[in-house]
Amino acid sequence: MKALIKLLVSVFLLVDFIPLNAEDGYRLWLRYDLVSNPEILEYYRETITGYMISDDSPTCKVAETELQNALTGLLGRSLPSVSVAGNGTIVAGTPETSSLIAEMYSENKLQEAGDEGYFIENTRHNGINFIVIAAKNDIGVLYGVFHLLRMIQMNQNLDNLSVMSSTKMKVRILNHWDMLPMGERGFTGNTIWKWNELPGKLDPRYTDYARANASIGINGTVLTNVNADVRLLTPEYMEKVAALADVFRPYGVRVYLAAKVTAPMEIGKLNTADPLDKDVIAWWKKTADELYKYIPDFGGFVVKANSEGQPGPLDYNRTHADGANLLADAVAPHGGIIMWRAFVYDNKVPEDRIKQPFNEFMPFDGKFRKNVILQVKNGPLDFQPREPFHPLFGAMPETPLMPEFQILQEYFGFTTHLTFLAPSYEECLKADTYCMGEGSLVAKVIDGTITDYPITGMAGVSNIGADRNWTGHIFGQSNWYAFGRLAWDPYMSSEEIAEEWVRMTFTNDEDVVGRISGFMVESREIAVNYRTPLGLHHIMYAGTHYGPGPWFDRDPRDPRPDWTSVYYHRADEKGVGFNRSSSGSNAVAQYFSPVRELFDKVEICPENLLLWFHHVSWDHKLKSGRTLWDEMCLRYNEGVEGIREIQTEWDRLKPFLDAERYENVRERLVKQVRDARIWKDACIVYFQTFSKKAIPEGVEPPEHNLEWYKAHRYTDIPGLFGAP
Ligand code: GCW
Predict the structure, then answer these.
(1) CA–CA separation, 724 vs 711, rounded Å?
(2) Tens digits of per-residue pLDDT, 242-289?
(3) Of 185, 356, 376, 410, which is best to mutate to test ligand 1, by the most ligand atoms within 8 angstroms of its C-beta?
(4) pLDDT digit string (tens) for 414-436?
(5) What crossing angle do the helices spanning 659-691 and 510-531 adopt, rounded to 10°?
(6) H-run or E-run covering 375
């Protein structure tokens, strides 16, 4: 008998390792499969006996459905919805929807968690023990339900629950870069929005999109590209947008749109788009009023103006503040906001492009309406694998700023490469701006801890496309997840986020969790190393942004020097790097002291940003004792070795993973290893034409000569539509 029990137990334990279902990745991190550890399963079955949640509001209704479906899956039995709480009941609600919650929680107490926050606690009331999810508003109830489910998905103990979760970040928003038929240049494949079917036909995927976003606290979405399409502001499209907004509403996800400054001319047939013109003012007001008739809780507009060919107020000799305030006034009566992007650079090529946003916006601090927030990329250039934090953070105390992170992997191998981006978001959020002395982290600037920002927020350029698994690469899902978690709580660590995601997405097996989350956290540094080590930047293949192109110089198709690679790396026989120190473009002066001095002095400048700020001789000695040239080659090599190790680890993990998702990643890792090698070899042979030095020992010799890399074209990368 004992032997039989032992056998049964070991079979049960094995179940933990055996993939039960084929998985296509559609369910993301909300998988809700039966808790696989029998003891833990038993524990949950004893601890949770039913639930009580009023379905008076659409949001509580979806919270109830989520709870019901999830518990049925996780516990393997359907739990009763009860009208009288007993031991083990989950009681969820607000004081308005639950008399029990009203009895137990004062308004003041609930206010501690804020408008969207919640409490999850074990409570004993009238002699009965139950689990409470209490919130001021319905959305807090839904977020609390997702939190409790996450704990169960992660097999956590529920005995001494005393969770209070709140956020200071008001706008947690995705920016889709979708054109009407396709994502921007194919970075994410085709668009998820089936415009030709809307408003009549609603793909069930729209509901799952909203669920997934709500599960990580995302509360807004800009449906289309910042390179805006004016059609969205016509009644035909307003109706389509309204249909999506109706689907998202119960999940607390508000819809926003990208606006184009010249819409009054293109749709309204006016002969100007001057923000101070009275007809232009009237047109925006009328258009906003109409939009709000379709979508009463419309969030507002995001605007890309005077940047990369987009029109803007500067075309009319007006300022960014004039442009933003015009739109702000149009949406203000309805409670809308304007997210005005600070990613600007004009067609006059400046001495140093990265200085432009700071120079253009800083003087207007305090000149924007209260419902305007500036959307600032994490770094001063353009989502490069590594950039220093943007100098505007901390420099505009009177104007709310929200960081924009890129979830889609424009410079990180699109949907083909595995790169967990939380470390790069974290690097920015935890950077110390020193704007108010030591400890003035970017996170504290943007969440209002050390500022009085009336609006706070974070934007993420979405990596969601039409793929069945949403992001093409299974690990792309982890970047969507990480963005949401950090938008709610910008102080979380990459390690915590990776662990949560792996447990929910794959397994709770400790060893497997440690191995997968371990390489995820390393993957960003690996990607930096095989692309742009030591502060190199913008040396990708022009146009596609996928492979390397450090040789890219001006040509008739791309006449702007600041769209070339040579503009940024400035390699010559003496050395390499962009001198932005006080003896160069002096971009360092845009930072507060002592960050400014840190970046300015080559001796103390962090080595991972060295070539961002300095032109350094090939013989310059680094902390390792090696010369710059040797170190650069070795870092490139490390990057390739690193991704090979991930590949080997993934292969070893095969027995613990389901076949479909294993294969999704395996097949891509083959390409990633190949591409990393191409990046390393191409950059080494190219820079060698300047350094004229031998490739150091320990570096795998390049496979081909420079001509080969220059001529190389990828033919097997989804998203590289029409790439040369
Ligand atoms: O990263 C660059 C991209 C453009 C993008 C632009 C921006 C949407 O190459 O495709 O346009 O930034 O952020 O506006």
Answers:
(1) 10
(2) 999 999 999 999 999 999 999 999 999 999 999 999 999 999 999 999
(3) 410
(4) 999 999 999 999 999 999 999 99
(5) 30
(6) strand 372-377
